[in-house]
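Final report, closing paragraph on structural work. Over the funding period we assembled a curated collection of sequence-structure pairs, and we close with a single example.
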Amino acid sequence: MLYQLSRSWAKLELWCSAFLALMITLLILLNVVTRYLGAALFWVDELAIYAMVWMTFFGASAAMHYRTSVSITLLTDAVPPAVKVIIEKLVDLIVFAFAIAVVWFCWRWFSPLELVRAGFDTVAFQGATFNFIYAEPTSTLGLPKYMFWSVMWFFAFGATFHSAVHLLCWPVREAEQ
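Its predicted structure, as stored:
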């Protein structure tokens, strides 16, 4: 059941990645057309970059579920299957530790409890924490950057969930996937 939930979440992440890839293509096409017409929209470049970043993080999290991340298999190809399973579980443990670290770093970076304590007053939050995450605007869009940086939360929780499922579930045969 956990594996099925992880697979559903990964499919959603891939759908989001595909949508963002389409969005990037359309934004770049819009940029080409507007520059050709002499009326460049500079915010389009920035939005395309943020869309690419979001696409990458969603895709990376989904790749953790499908185990399609770039890897070097020299060692696992040379050992017996029982040892290969142990190595894969060790890798799952390392990936899980990395994912937990990303959650912790997001918690420290966004400081949600401190923001609540400040009554969602970003000026009071900045004065109390010297953390200006909620005050920095994007260069051309004029939107708060934390909105775009929030993809880190999606990645952190997706990576944690996928790696936890891999740790808890023994390798699923390809026929079961």
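Confidence is low (pLDDT under 50) at residues 173-177. Residues 2-168 form one domain. We thank the funder for supporting this effort.
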